Amino acid sequence: MPSLKSLLSLLSLRAITLALAHNSSNPLLATGANLTFALPTHPVHTFPVGTWIENLAVRENGQIIATDDTHPRIYQIDPYYSHTPALLLHEFNNTASILGIVETTPDVFYVCTANYSSAKLEGYGEAYIYRLDMRPFSSSIKNSAVISKIATLLEAKALDGLTWLEPRDDAEGEGLLLISDFLAGVIWSVKPATGAVAMPINSTYTRSTGFGVNGLKIRNRKLYLTNSQQQTLVKVLINSKGEAVGNYTVLAQGGFTPDDFALDAEGNAYVTSFEVGRNGVVFVPREGGQAVYIPGMAGPTAAAFGRGREEGWLYVSTSGGDYDYLTGKEVTAAGGIVRVQVGGRG
């Protein structure tokens, strides 16, 4: 139960977000012009210093699945008991990092891997897509989560964001995984049933000379994507092949360095943003416009709404400080999972 102060903050934030969601003004997030709204941030789990938690997904039972960028590992975290150790689900031996994760059907997840140098902005080796089947999982049985490789992306440079394009009701398609490649500046697609790989999107909005297209989400056949270097959140209508078939709409641009994000039930975005001395979540109304900045996280990387009794919480994965890693400085903060009660639902 939130305190009276927290409750008043949530009510105020809710009023602001409802007003902003109906704002049809120019969708430009101007540097220094965005609102700041402090909300209490609560740690869910903290990893050892030097652990970069890159992404997360929430199971139907409320448990959190987290991917590790600094070690090729996948963990399960219990948000109900913060003292419970993170449970190692799997450690890979043929890749440097595990990044994006998405659930396609209940308790069936996919993750993408990457081999890249953040210092040199170069990729090396092969990238893979794996299925993580949690249906037979038992916390009392070691290695009971089933891992299987479904695709190899030979031309990928650094896979990152991962989302799921549902098959159409007319059975035109079988569903696709869409994966961002921030070094190549493109979006790949993979058919889980066959492992077939394609490149449906190579756009001005995905490209970069470094950290390009990053987070991906799909809502009502619209693909939402961030571009870290361009400092943008955009959306575009896509077809069953994952190809853009409409005009790109810029929802926010400038004033933040977006990573991944979560969409609430109304289509508003909670975008993780990492900058020197200014880390947090940026709320972007569903039609774009003035943003609300929620500070208080060390290197936020991705976000997901809780489920079940935790559905009012926004979980945020953290690196402990992105720029420390990228510039070779000593990392003194620990990555992990924090939660913020933002007043929305996923």
From TrEMBL:
Tell me if Signal is a UniProt keyword of this record.
Answer: yes
Q: Which PANTHER family match?
A: NHL REPEAT-CONTAINING PROTEIN (PTHR42060:SF1), NHL REPEAT-CONTAINING PROTEIN-RELATED (PTHR42060)
Annotated ranges, domain SMP-30/Gluconolactonase/LRE-like region:
214-319
Pfam families per record? SGL (PF08450)
Looking up InterPro entries in the UniProt record yields: 6-blade_b-propeller_TolB-like, Hetero-Diels-Alderase-like, SGL
Specify whether Signal is a keyword of the entry. Answer: yes
The name on file for this protein is SMP-30/Gluconolactonase/LRE-like region domain-containing protein
| Superkingdom, natural source | Eukaryota
Check the UniProt entry and state the signal peptide residues, or none.
Answer: 1-21
Q: Recite the UniProt keywords alphabetically.
A: Signal
